[in-house]
């Protein structure tokens, strides 16, 4: 069983993904990091040199490769992953999707640091962070809502999510 974390930039997919992988003793992968390794360029450079459409194609290709691998893993997706190239269908077909449903206020506070913005090209070029987050969440919610499971902000810790999985009968290795 593969576990796929989806949600807005700053919602904590990478952070929670690492924690859940440790909790269940599963391999952890971060889709953004896999794309960087494949392209040999950091994400802002991919956007700058080749544009978003090229990034989205790479993202879709690498996602499908990971989904086709045998064995369980935890994958932190990119913020936009479920919203392009029918990726949501791939995610829901091959594993359990979990949406980290975090408020715009919290996202804005977490992403306020300059280093957080610089590594996220859509944010870096968008103008005021909070307005971009609100507009983007409005557009993406229809995709995120199709996740099989959802954690709201206070319950997005590894222990709370593991308890939710146990209740939902999600078949992951015992912690
Ligand atoms: N539960 C949490 N409580 C407080 N801060 C958090 C929490 N989860 C993540 N953060 C912080 O928020 C920032 C963004 O987290 P993270 O990189 O895990 O988000 P992400 O969803 O992977 O973002 P992206 O989509 O851009 O890759 C980091 O500085 C991280 O330390
Ligand atoms: O929200 C988005 O569309 C993105 C989020 C990041 O995880 C990266 O995948 C990239 O910067 C695009
Ligand atoms: Mg991340």
TrEMBL record:
Query: What CDD domains does the record tag this protein with?
Result: SK
What SUPFAM superfamilies does this protein map onto? P-loop containing nucleoside triphosphate hydrolases
Q: Which reaction does it catalyse?
A: shikimate + ATP = 3-phosphoshikimate + ADP + H(+)
Q: Could you tell me which pathway this protein works in? A: Metabolic intermediate biosynthesis; chorismate biosynthesis; chorismate from D-erythrose 4-phosphate and phosphoenolpyruvate: step 5/7
Q: Name one GO molecular function term.
A: shikimate kinase activity
Enzyme kind, highest EC tier = transferase
Q: Which UniProt keywords apply?
A: Amino-acid biosynthesis, Aromatic amino acid biosynthesis, ATP-binding, Cytoplasm, Kinase, Magnesium, Metal-binding, Nucleotide-binding, Transferase
Q: Where in the cell is it found?
A: Cytoplasm
- So where does Mg(2+) get bound? 14
Q: How is the cofactor bound?
A: Binds 1 Mg(2+) ion per subunit.
Question: What residues does ATP bind to?
Answer: 10-15, 120
Give the EC number(s) under which this enzyme is classified: 2.7.1.71
InterPro entries per the UniProt record, alphabetical: P-loop_NTPase, Shikimate/glucono_kinase, Shikimate_kinase/TSH1
Classification via Pfam families = SKI (PF01202)
GO annotation, cellular component aspect? cytosol
Q: Where does substrate bind?
A: 32, 56, 79, 140
Q: Which domain of life is it from?
A: Bacteria
State what this protein does.
Catalyzes the specific phosphorylation of the 3-hydroxyl group of shikimic acid using ATP as a cosubstrate.
**HAMAP family with a match to the protein in the record:** Shikimate_kinase
Which family does this protein fall into? Belongs to the shikimate kinase family.
Subunit record text: Monomer.
How is this protein named in the record? Shikimate kinase
Q: Could you tell me which species this protein originates from?
A: Hymenobacter sedentarius
């Amino acid at each position: 069983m593969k576990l796929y974390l989806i949600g807005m930039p700053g919602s904590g997919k990478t952070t929670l993904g690492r924690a859940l992988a440790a909790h269940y003793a599963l391999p952890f992968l971060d889709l953004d990091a896999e794309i960087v390794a494949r392209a040999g360029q950091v994400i802002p450079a991919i956007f700058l040199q080749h544009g978003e459409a090229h990034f989205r194609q790479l993202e879709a290709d690498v996602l499908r490769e990971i989904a086709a691998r045998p064995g369980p893993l935890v994958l932190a997706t990119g913020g936009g992953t479920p919203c392009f190239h029918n990726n949501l269908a791939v995610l829901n077909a091959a594993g359990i999707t979990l949406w980290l449903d975090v408020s715009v206020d919290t996202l804005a506070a977490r992403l306020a640091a300059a280093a957080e913005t610089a590594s996220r090209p859509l944010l870096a070029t968008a103008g005021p962070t909070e307005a971009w987050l609100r507009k983007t969440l409005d557009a993406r919610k229809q995709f995120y809502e199709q996740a099989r499971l959802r954690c709201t902000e206070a319950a997005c810790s590894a222990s709370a999510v593991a308890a939710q999985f146990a209740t939902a009968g999600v078949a992951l290795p015992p912690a």
